[in-house]
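User: quick one, sequence for these C-alpha cells?
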C-alpha cells in the first residue's frame, strides 16, 4: 500500500499546472458562434493556402452548425452549415474518389441527436450522404447510439477511406465503430467493417485522431489515458499502447497530430480541466512538455504544419475555447521543434 501511495504522489508531481506556465497568446481569436463550440478541422486549399478554411462545430439540438472560418477568424456564411441537430466533432480528408475521373476533399461530422454521421465535399459544401449515414444501428439502447467523435482514415496502401466513430456511452469493448466509405452508381455508402476499442468505464470517449502515414488511431479514454490501436482493420484489434495519464489533471480531450516530412511529429492533447495542452512525440509517444495557450475547457483541436500565408508561415494550431469561439495560434508559437 505504501508503494502504491508513493507511486501516486510521484505521478501527481509530473502534472504541470497551467498557473505555473507562461501564456502563449493566440495569433487571433475567431468570431463567436451562437451556441457551444466543440471541435475544429482545418481544410487546406492546396492551390491557394491563404484561402484555407477552418470548420468548427457549434452544438445545439435544433439549430447547431458547422461554421466555416477564414484565416482571419471571420465566419464564411456561404460555406457554413446550420439547422444541424447537435453536431459534435468534425474531420477533413483529401482525395476521395467519387468515380474514376473525379476526386474531392471531404468533411465528415457527427450529428448526435439524429444518430448519424454526415459527409460533404469541400469547399463546395455538397452533401454526399443522401441525408446522413446511421451509426451504431445494432444497438437497442438509444443511449448507445449517440455519436460524438469522428476521424477519417485514408489508408496510404490502397487509398481506402474509413470513418472511425465514438459515442456518448458505450461498452468496455467495441466502443468505436469503423465504417468503410465507398462511392458507386448509387452514391456514397458507409459500411460497418469492425467494432474495436477498449473503454475503462470511466467518463466517456470522444476525441479520435488518425495518423494515416504510420497507421495508428489514437483516442482519449477520458479518465485513464490515450489509447493507441492500428487504424487498418487488417492489422487487428489489439491495443498497441496506453499512455499519458500522469500528465493530466482530469479529462483527457482533443487530439491533434502535427506531422513533418522527415517522419517526426507530435501529438497535442487537451488537458481540459487544467486549461492547457500536453505534447507527446509522434513515434514513441514520450512526453515532451505542457503548454498554456489561454483557452478554457478545450474539447477539440486541430493542427497543420503546412505554411498558410504570412500569419502562419510554418503551420497553424486551432483549439476550441469555452466562450463560443476558437483560438488560432501560428504553429511557431508552440515551439514544438
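Assistant:
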Amino acid at each position: 500500500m505504501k508503494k502504491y501511495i508513493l507511486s501516486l504522489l510521484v505521478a501527481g508531481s509530473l502534472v504541470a499546472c497551467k498557473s505555473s506556465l507562461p501564456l502563449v497568446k493566440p495569433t487571433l481569436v475567431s468570431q463567436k458562434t451562437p451556441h457551444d463550440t466543440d471541435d475544429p478541422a482545418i481544410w487546406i486549399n492546396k492551390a491557394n493556402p491563404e484561402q484555407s478554411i477552418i470548420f468548427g462545430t457549434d452544438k445545439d439540438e435544433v439549430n447547431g452548425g458547422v461554421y466555416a472560418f477564414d484565416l482571419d477568424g471571420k465566419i464564411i456564411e456561404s460555406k457554413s452549415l446550420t439547422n444541424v441537430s447537435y453536431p459534435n466533432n468534425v474531420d477533413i480528408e483529401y482525395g476521395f474518389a467519387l468515380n474514376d475521373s473525379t476526386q474531392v476533399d471531404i468533411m465528415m461530422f457527427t450529428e448526435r441527436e439524429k444518430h448519424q454521421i454526415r459527409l460533404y465535399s469541400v469547399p463546395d459544401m455538397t452533401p454526399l450522404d443522401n441525408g446522413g449515414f446511421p451509426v451504431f444501428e445494432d444497438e437497442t439502447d438509444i443511449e448507445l447510439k449517440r455519436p460524438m467523435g469522428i476521424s477519417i482514415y485514408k489508408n496510404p496502401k490502397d487509398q481506402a477511406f474509413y470513418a472511425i466513430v465514438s459515442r456518448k456511452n458505450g461498452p468496455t469493448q467495441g466502443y468505436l465503430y469503423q465504417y468503410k466509405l465507398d462511392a458507386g452508381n448509387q452514391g456514397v455508402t458507409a459500411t460497418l467493417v469492425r467494432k474495436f476499442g477498449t473503454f475503462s468505464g470511466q467518463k466517456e470517449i470522444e476525441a479520435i485522431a488518425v495518423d494515416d502515414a504510420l497507421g495508428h488511431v489514437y483516442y482519449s479514454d477520458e479518465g485513464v489515458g490515450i489509447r493507441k490501436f492500428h487504424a487498418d482493420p487488417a492489422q487487428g484489434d489489439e491495443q498497441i499502447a496506453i499512455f499519458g495519464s500522469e500528465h493530466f489533471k482530469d479529462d483527457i480531450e482533443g487530439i491533434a497530430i502535427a506531422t513533418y516530412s522527415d517522419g517526426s511529429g507530435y501529438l497535442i492533447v487537451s488537458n481540459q480541466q487544467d486549461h492547457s495542452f500536453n505534447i507527446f512525440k509522434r513515434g514513441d509517444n514520450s512526453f515532451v512538455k505542457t503548454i498554456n495557450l489561454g483557452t478554457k475547457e478545450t474539447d477539440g483541436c486541430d493542427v497543420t504544419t503546412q505554411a498558410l500565408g504570412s500569419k502562419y508561415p510554418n503551420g497553424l494550431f486551432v483549439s476550441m475555447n469555452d466562450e463560443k469561439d476558437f483560438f488560432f495560434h501560428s504553429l511557431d508559437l508552440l515551439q514544438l521543434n
